[in-house]
Amino acid sequence: MIRRLKVREHSSGRAGITRLIVGGMHGREYEVSSKILDKIKPNPSEGRVIVVPNVNISGRRYVSTTNEDYIKSPAGRVYLSIFERYKPDVVVELHIFNSKSYKNLVSPDRIYKRGVPRLMPYRSDLPIEDQILHGGPPPFVKDRFKEHASYITLEIHEKYGKEAEKTLLFILNSVINSNSVKEIREKLKERYRESMEKAGRLLRDYLSRAD
Ligand SMILES: [Zn+2]
Question: Cα of 13 to ligand 1 centre, how many Å?
Answer without folding.
Answer: 32
